[in-house]
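Input structure tokens:
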């Protein structure tokens, strides 16, 4: 008798389960009718995405079409010379490398250190909010204002020189590295901190061996984005670093490489501006092509490094 009642209840429950599953399946989002507003929104999103892609392709194709024919070995390996009737951007390439290296040497320790203090040491409160607000405001200041400030302050100390331009650029990209590092540290789980501190690890040992390696993909991304900002900057450098195109004098012991830091040096973007001002459009498009290639390489390297660090 009990077994028969059990079987009857099982059949009823099974029937109800099938009916409930059918109702759920019929009421699922896959069976619902697509609304007209959703279709219009999706179409607008697709149009905007397509427009962005076409805009990028159009600008790149236009610049490459006018500039790729100018690029050759002489264009990349020589400096302008009225005597030899040549034009090259070797000096501008070297100056750009100087600016990138010196700026990163100045700003990376400061930016990463500031992010570590804000995220790991400072207590949440008004001071932290003021610092974060100041950092965000600093990132929104126009570059021409940084150039005027750099000319008045650093220009009076170092004159028109690469070091003056590099310090000015360091102020510009400091918020970028600080915020990226801070956000990268926030993504590290708190269990890492609790576990390390529970095992008796010191604060700095925890940061050095656990937090920084875990946040390294985000830190590297911020540094590479800063490089892109440095490469593309012109207004601030025009007032601080000058527009000289000379190569450094190596000397017997390479002392010219150090002396070059205190000398004027125009970057690729400065030379692009000067070429356009002098109506030398072929040279300008050639430099623009080189800059686009550099930007593509930076973006590609960023993705590779971030992907590799995330898998380790």
């Amino acid at each position: 008798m009990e077994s028969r009642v059990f079987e009857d209840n099982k059949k009823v429950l099974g029937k109800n389960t099938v009916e409930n599953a059918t109702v759920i399946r019929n009421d699922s989002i896959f069976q619902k009718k697509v609304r007209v507003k959703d279709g219009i929104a999706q179409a607008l999103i697709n149009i905007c995405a397509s427009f962005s892609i076409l805009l990028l392709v159009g600008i790149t194709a236009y610049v490459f079409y006018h500039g790729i024919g100018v690029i050759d070995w002489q264009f990349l390996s020589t400096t302008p010379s009225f005597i030899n009737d040549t034009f090259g951007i070797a000096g501008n390439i070297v100056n750009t490398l100087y600016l990138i290296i010196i700026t990163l040497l100045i700003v990376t320790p400061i930016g990463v250190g500031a992010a570590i203090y804000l995220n790991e040491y400072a207590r949440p409160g008004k001071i932290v909010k003021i610092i974060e607000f100041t950092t965000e405001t600093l990132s929104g200041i126009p570059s021409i204002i940084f150039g005027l400030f750099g000319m008045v302050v650093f220009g009076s100390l170092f004159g028109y020189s690469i070091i003056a331009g590099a310090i000015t650029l360091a102020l510009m990209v400091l918020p970028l590295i600080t915020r990226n590092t801070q956000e990268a540290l926030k993504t590290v789980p708190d269990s890492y901190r609790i576990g390390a501190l529970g095992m008796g690890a010191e604060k700095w040992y925890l940061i050095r061996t656990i937090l920084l390696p875990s946040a390294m993909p985000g830190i590297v991304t911020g540094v590479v984005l800063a490089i892109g900002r440095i490469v593309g900057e012109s207004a601030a450098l025009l007032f601080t670093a000058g527009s000289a195109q000379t190569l450094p004098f190596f000397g017997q012991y390479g002392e010219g490489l150090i002396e070059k830091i205190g000398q004027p040096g125009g970057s690729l973007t400065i030379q692009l501006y000067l070429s356009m001002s002098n109506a030398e459009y072929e040279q300008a498009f050639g430099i623009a092509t080189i800059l686009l290639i550099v930007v593509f390489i930076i973006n590609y390297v960023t993705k590779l490094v971030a992907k590799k660090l995330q898998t380790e």
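The chain is about 75% helix and 0% strand. Confidence is low (pLDDT under 50) at residues 9-13.
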